[in-house]
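User: Can you model how protoporphyrin IX containing FE sits in this protein?
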Amino acid sequence: MYILMEFLKLFQASFSLILLPLLLRLLFSCWILPILVYRKLRKNGFGGPTPSFPLGNIREMEILCDYDSSLESSAISHDIHSTVFPYFSEWQKSHGKVFIYWLGTEPFLYIAEPEFLKKMSSKVQGKHWGKPNVFKHDRKPMFGSGLLMVEGDDWVRHRHVITPAFSPPNLKTVVSLMVEPATKMLERWTALINAGKTEFDVEREIAMMAGEIIGRAGFGLSCENGGEVLEKLRAMQITLFNVNRYVGVPFGQWICRRKNMEAKKLGKEIDQLLLSIISGARNKCGEGSGQRQRHRCLLGYLMEGERLNERELVDECKTFFFGGHETTALALTWTVLLLAMHPHWQNQLREEITQVIGDGEIDFTNLAALNKMGWVMNEVLRLYSPAPNVQRQAREEIKVDDLVIPKGTNLWVDTVAMHHDPTLWGDDVYEFRPERFKDDNLYGGCKHKMGFLPFGFGGRMCIGRNWTFMEYKVVLTLLLTRFSFSLSPTYHHSPSILLSLRPRYGMPLIVQPL
Ligand code: HEM
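Assistant: Here's the modeled complex, given as C-alpha cells:
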C-alpha cells in the first residue's frame, strides 16, 4: 500500500512537472494557435468546408479522391484540375477561389485568384516567407534544410552562395555535359528499336537521363555514383508521399511510424553517400591539385568559401539532386505526350531546329534562338505543371487592402487551377496551343500576370529555371532529330500527384526512327 501511495505521488509530481506543461504546449500549438489564426481569417469573410477534429477536411478529401478515380476514362483530356485535385475543384464551386480548408488541426488559406496573390505577395520579401511547419517533418528526410525549406537570413545566405552557379557564363559551359547523357539515352532507344521494341516507357527513360545530367553537370559524378543517390531518393519519395500521411493531424507521425522509420533510414544512407561524394570533391579540388576546371559544377559553388557547414552542404546536395532532375524530366515527359498527340508540332519544331542549328553543334546561343520550342515548353508547363502548387507560411501579419492575413497562416497556391482557369485563358484553355505564347512569350496572353506560375513567384522563385530551359531544349532537339513519337493504345491518361504532377501509369509511347 505504502509503495502504491509513493508511486502515485511520484506520478502526480512528474505529471505536474513534465507531462502537464507538455500537454499544455501541445494543446496550444495544435488547437489554440490554429483556432486563433482561423478566427482572424474568418473575420475577413473567407468561407470554406466545415472541418472536424482531429482530421480537419482530410476525410472529405479522401472520399472525393476515391470517387473521382472511379470515373477515369481512357480519353485524353487536358481538363485535369478536377481529377488531380477533386476536393479543391468541388470546394471552389461553393466557396470561390480563396477559402480556408484544414489539414488536421492546421488551417490553410487556399488561393486560386491571381489578383489576391499579387496584392498579398507584393508585401512580402523572399526572406520573410516561411514554408508550412506541418510539412517540415515530412520533407526533412528529402530536402533537410536545403534552399527549398530554409528561411530568413539563412535562406539569403544559401541563395547568395548558389545563385552564381546559374549565371549565363556558367550555364554556357554546362551544355556539352547535358548532351552526353541525352545522346546515351538515344543510343539506348536505337538499340531497343533495332531489337524490335518500338514501344517503351519514356517517363522512366527520361527520368534516368535527367538524373544522369544533374549527377554529371551538377556534381561531376559518374552515372553509377549518381544513380545510387537517385534510386534512394526515388524510393524515399514513394515512401513519403505515396500514402496519406495525416499531415497536420496530432500524432500523425505515429500513425505512419513504419514509413517514417523507413524514410529516416533511407535519409541516413543518402547522407552517407553524399558525404563521400563531398569528401571526394574536396580531395580533387584540394590545394596543390593545381587544376582549374573549365566548368565549375554546382557542388563547387556550394563548397566555395566554406559558407555552408557540412550538414547544410549535404541538405543542398539532396535538394539539387532531387529538384534538379524530377521536374525537368516531367516537363519533357509531358512534352513528348503532347507532341505525340500533335504531330504537326513535331514537324514545326524539326523545321526550326534545321533552320537554327542545322548540322552545327548545340550551344547556348542557338538554343536561345529556338523560339517555337520555348512556346511549346511554356504551353506544356501550363497544361501539366510539374510543380502543381506553391506552399508558403506567413511569418508576419500581411495586410491586403482592408483584409488581414495573420502571422502563421499557411498558404496553398493552386497553380493547376490557375493554369486551367477559362476566365484567365479564354475558352481554348484546355487546348494545346503553343502559339498563345507567340506574341506574349512570358504569359501566353493570360489575363493576369500572376496566372502563369510554373516556377513560383517573388524572391523565392525557382533558382533552376534557366538550367531547365537549357536542358529541355538540348534534350528535345536531340530527340526530335532522331525520332518521331505517336500515341500507344496502352497509354492510360491519369495525371496524379506524388509531390509533383506525373503520369500515374508511366508513359508508354511508340517511338520510330526518322
Ligand atoms: C520544369 C522544371 C522546374 C519547375 C516546374 C520548378 C518549379 C519550382 C517551383 C514552383 C518552386 C517554388 C517556388 C516558390 O516557392 O515560389 C521551385 C523552387 C526551387 N527550385 Fe525549381 N523547378 C524546376 C526546375 C528546377 C531545377 C532544374 C533546379 C535545380 C537545378 C531547381 C531547384 C529549385 C530550388 C533549389 C528551389 C527553391 C528556391 C528557393 O526557395 O529559394 N528547380 N521550383
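A couple of observations from the model: The first strand starts at residue 98 and ends at 103. Residues 106 and 248 are 6 Å apart (CA to CA).
User: Helpful, thanks.
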